């Protein structure tokens, strides 16, 4: 690898040239916890080989940003050794930080031992006590002796805490050393550990139910397992008091749900191992598990591989080792089943004092086995697959073992949806307070945040949920309490209103109460008409007459009664298959990453076997967001033959979508509590967007996170003279214009001319050529045409042809064959898609990518309602920002009211292009 840096800049937080700095005030958000001087980055970092200068500069910049508690944007293209530099820079800081903590603890203990309890002189504090502590006491108008006593007490408490933490750390180090010794003695020791596991017991399905405490007389007439389908009594009284407490907690729309989340999270934390010290750590996030696995391999290769405690987190779907549960496939069902088994285990424990054979609990969730697996994770770095295999061998749950390893780990690697989604973070017991967060491949972090908090449901799903609930209510009418019946009826009322909002959408006029203009269009094939209207959250509830229903109570009822799960069990057992409609998937622990492909018409993903009501509830929950932060888009899709009949809509294509517009509102939790947040990526330009949308949403001045910022950027490592960029407006004949806009790109003359150009390119470019199309469909269409016209055969005379597979599992084999072909001296061409599986995170180094061809520019669909709403929102925000910074309280004459939205539209496209050609 040549060590050339085409450009590099490192801006301290106070740089006024950075809009990042100007938006985010250059003041540290939090005072440092230690009176020690700031750490200075070393000139020599531990690194597996002599680092190039750009790698050393990246490590120094990263070290400084973390030490100075910065929000940083780090840009370093693929092939520059970014991952290794991040690992070594961040872990060197962590090593030095821990050493500082130990020094601090040592001096405190020494001070305590050598001290004969002197009264601290006024204004002084014990060594290591936060430097502001004494001043805080002194600000009160109290006598000196009271202040001195309070300062001394604070010092003693601080000292005790540090001592306790160090004792825990010592104990844990000894225990892990033992585990390491045992594990390294022989593989047989692992088998011995596994030998103690309990024999798996057969697990009843949700529909048949576990051995339940069905002791009520009424239940006698119910058939086998049916008792479990009945809702347990729910009383809103307690929730009311919770609600009033939490309402006062927060003005924000979602505040009322925070208390419930906290309660849930603390319940999860109860079963965690408090004996394990919670050490300073780095949370490293990337988009996919395969990227995380690559990262783990890099950690192993680094000088920190042996000494760093690393844990990789995944969902239950990835980590569950119980085959009976894994086979449920849908993540929601796996979660539900696992929760059931855990509840059974708690009940069994209460009744018998321990697990016992015959209990319908998970046999892989015994304390000993999970603790042993946790310790083995901490002494040997494992990736996801190894973790599951080890869990199976040891008869221990890999999901809970990895969760329990978080407290003691130095490095936690997880998909970034798990970290960015508030509830998932809390459910995992992740506390970001004072920790370091590094988000890799962060170029799409804003779109991912928007996607995580956006929800789409189809009319078919709402209808299925309603039909199931009506049948359920009818069958068990006499068995439900009055309170439960009231909530069931409310739920039915809201679902009917949601359906009316779609079927009643006028096709020719402005929808009553719609916040934005109604849009109408024909589909590409002209087969159906689509009409959309946009509403604010409050307007949507008001117009559909459910604004008087307390959604907070309704959601509490649904959660506590587990109605979604019970209804699904009921539907599987008693409902006609037609009502078991597919359901649109939403943000979950899996959190499938998507960029704003919804702007280009992405259809919701469908999953079988998932409760339809679950999705309806997710949509309802999204309405708890702040009114200004999102929109509801109602889309009715009518078959053209029934265009005049308002009720004739295509239920599978007509949707309700909650669109999150303000990613900053959720990102502030992360920035607000972490010590430092670093967004890293190959191409992060334009960086202003991160500042404007993530740090300082102008509509929420109260939410502004006062952090200092840092920016590091290094260019590609190849010399400028080795690179040539060419824009082709015409093909070789000079007669056909290269216009790949929607109108012209299907023109066969354009495709043929493109084929001629490609034949020329493959004739004079050696080794590998990578060619990007705007979509899978367009790629397939062009390749079909080239097959017919024998262009592909001509290309094949020079290069072997490869094509990006749609199935993720086949990507590795295609890449391997492509690389082998080039290394064997035969040229190859790889056709792939912008935003697809090969457009990021893959290093087409040297001969693998001698030429990159970009066919047209991947602009999003201009007519997308969601995209237009996002652009409108950004224009409004820019206006608010301009007004706020204007001294006259008027917009400057040069202010362009549509510039922010247009810039976003352009950036969306250019970022996708940068990502593809920059990798
Ligand atoms: S406890 Fe672990 S192994 Fe058992 S069902 Fe849950 S995730 Fe699967």
TrEMBL record:
Its main location: nucleus. Its cofactor is [4Fe-4S] cluster. PROSITE patterns: HELICASE_ATP_BIND_2. It is found in: Nucleus. Residues 118-137, 187-222, 235-272 are annotated as: Disordered. Keywords: ATP-binding, Helicase, Hydrolase, Iron, Iron-sulfur, Isomerase, Metal-binding, Nucleotide-binding, Nucleus. NCBIfam families: rad3. GO terms for biological process: establishment of sister chromatid cohesion; nucleobase-containing compound metabolic process. Coiled coil: none annotated. Belongs to the DEAD box helicase family. DEAH subfamily. DDX11/CHL1 sub-subfamily. Pfam families: DEAD_2, Helicase_C_2. GO terms for cellular component: nucleus. This is Helicase ATP-binding domain-containing protein. The lineage of its organism: Eukaryota, Filasterea, Capsaspora. One of its GO terms (molecular function) is metal ion binding. Residues 41-492 form the Helicase ATP-binding domain. It comes from the Eukaryota.
């Amino acid at each position: 690898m040549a060590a050339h840096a085409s450009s590099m800049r490192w801006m301290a937080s106070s740089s006024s040239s950075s809009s990042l700095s100007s938006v985010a005030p250059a003041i540290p958000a939090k005072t440092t916890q230690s009176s020690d001087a700031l750490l200075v980055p070393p000139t020599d970092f531990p690194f597996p080989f002599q680092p190039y200068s750009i790698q050393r500069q990246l490590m120094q910049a990263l070290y400084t940003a973390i030490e100075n508690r910065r929000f940083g944007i780090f840009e370093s293209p693929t092939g520059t050794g970014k991952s290794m530099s991040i690992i070594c820079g961040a872990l060197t800081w962590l090593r030095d930080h821990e050493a500082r903590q130990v020094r601090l603890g040592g001096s405190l203990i020494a001070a305590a031992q050598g001290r004969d309890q002197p009264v601290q002189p006024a204004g002084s504090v014990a060594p290591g006590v936060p430097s502001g502590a004494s001043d805080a006491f002194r600000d009160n108008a109290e006598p000196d002796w009271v202040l001195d006593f309070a300062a001394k007490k604070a010092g003693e408490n601080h000292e005790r805490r540090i001592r306790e933490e160090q004792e825990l750390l010592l104990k844990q180090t000894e225990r892990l050393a033992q585990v390491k010794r045992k594990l390294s003695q022989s593989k047989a020791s692992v088998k011995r550990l596994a030998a103690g596991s309990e024999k798996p017991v057969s697990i009843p399905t949700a529909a048949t139910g576990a051995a339940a405490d069905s002791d009520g007389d009424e239940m006698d007439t119910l058939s086998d397992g049916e008792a479990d389908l009945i809702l347990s009594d729910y009383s809103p009284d307690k929730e009311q008091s919770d609600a009033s407490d939490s309402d006062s907690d927060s003005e924000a729309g979602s505040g009322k749900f925070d208390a419930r989340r906290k309660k849930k999270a603390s319940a999860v934390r109860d079963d965690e191992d408090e004996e394990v010290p919670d050490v300073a750590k780095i949370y490293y996030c990337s988009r996919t598990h395969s990227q995380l696995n690559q990262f783990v391999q890099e950690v192993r290769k680094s000088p920190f591989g042996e000494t760093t405690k690393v844990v990789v987190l995944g969902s239950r779907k990835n980590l569950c080792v119980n085959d009976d549960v894994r086979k449920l496939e849908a993540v929601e069902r796996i979660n539900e089943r696992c929760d059931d088994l855990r509840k059974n285990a708690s009940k069994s424990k209460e009744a018998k004092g321990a697990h016992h054979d015959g209990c319908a609990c998970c046999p892989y969730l015994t304390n000993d086995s999970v603790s042993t697996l946790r310790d083995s994770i901490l002494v040997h770095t494992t990736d996801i697959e190894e973790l599951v295999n080890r869990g199976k061998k040891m008869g221990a749950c890999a999901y809970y073992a990895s969760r329990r390893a978080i407290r003691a780990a130095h490095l936690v690697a997880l998909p970034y949806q798990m970290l960015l989604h508030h509830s998932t973070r809390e459910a995992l017991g992740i506390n970001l307070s004072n920790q370091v967060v590094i988000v890799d491949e962060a170029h799409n972090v804003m779109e991912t945040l928007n996607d995580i908090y956006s929800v789409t449901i189809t009319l078919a799903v709402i209808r299925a949920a309603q039909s199931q609930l009506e049948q359920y209510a009818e069958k068990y009418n006499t068995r439900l309490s009055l309170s439960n019946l009231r909530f069931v009826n409310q739920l039915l009322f809201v679902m009917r209103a949601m359906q009316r909002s779609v079927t009643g959408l006028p096709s020719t006029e402005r929808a009553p109460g719609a916040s934005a203009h109604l849009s109408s269009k024909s589909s590409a094939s002209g087969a159906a008409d689509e009409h959309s209207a946009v509403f604010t959250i409050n307007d949507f509830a008001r117009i559909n007459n459910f604004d008087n229903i307390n959604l907070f109570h309704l959601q509490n009822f649904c959660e506590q009664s587990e109605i979604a799960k019970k209804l699904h069990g009921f539907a599987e057992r008693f409902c006609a298959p037609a009502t078991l409609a597919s359901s649109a998937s939403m943000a979950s622990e899996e959190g499938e990453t998507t960029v704003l492909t919804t702007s280009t018409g992405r259809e919701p993903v469908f999953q079988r076997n998932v409760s339809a009501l679950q999705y309806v509830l997710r949509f309802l929950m999204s309405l708890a967001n702040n009114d200004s932060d999102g929109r509801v888009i109602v889309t009715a899709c009518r078959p053209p033959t029934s265009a005049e009949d308002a009720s004739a809509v295509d239920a599978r294509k007509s949707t309700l979508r909650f669109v999150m517009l303000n990613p900053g509102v959720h990102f502030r939790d992360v920035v607000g509590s972490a010590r430092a947040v670093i967004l890293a990526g190959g191409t992060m330009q334009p960086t202003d967007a991160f500042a404007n949308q993530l740090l300082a949403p102008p509509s929420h001045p109260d939410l502004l996170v006062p952090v200092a910022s840092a920016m590091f950027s290094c260019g590609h490592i190849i010399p400028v003279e080795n690179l040539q960029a060419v824009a082709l407006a015409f093909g070789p004949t000079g007669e056909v214009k290269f216009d790949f806009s929607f109108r012209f790109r299907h023109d066969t003359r354009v495709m043929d001319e493109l084929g001629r150009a490609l034949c020329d390119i493959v004739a004079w470019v050696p080794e590998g050529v990578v060619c990007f199309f705007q979509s899978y469909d367009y790629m397939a269409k062009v390749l079909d045409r080239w097959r017919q016209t024998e262009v592909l055969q001509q290309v094949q005379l020079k290069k072997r042809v490869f094509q990006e597979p749609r199935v993720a599992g086949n990507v590795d084999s295609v890449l391997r064959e492509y690389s082998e072909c080039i290394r064997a001296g035969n040229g190859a061409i790889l056709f792939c898609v912008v935003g697809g599986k090969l457009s990021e995170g893959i290093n087409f180094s040297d001969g693998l990518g001698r030429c990159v061809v970009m066919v047209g520019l991947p602009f999003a669909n201009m007519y997308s309602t969601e995209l237009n709403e996002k652009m409108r929102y950004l224009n409004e925000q820019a206006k608010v920002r301009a007004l706020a910074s204007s001294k006259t309280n008027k917009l400057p004459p040069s202010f362009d009211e549509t510039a922010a939205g247009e810039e976003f539209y352009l950036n969306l496209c250019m970022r996708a292009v940068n990502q593809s050609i920059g990798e």
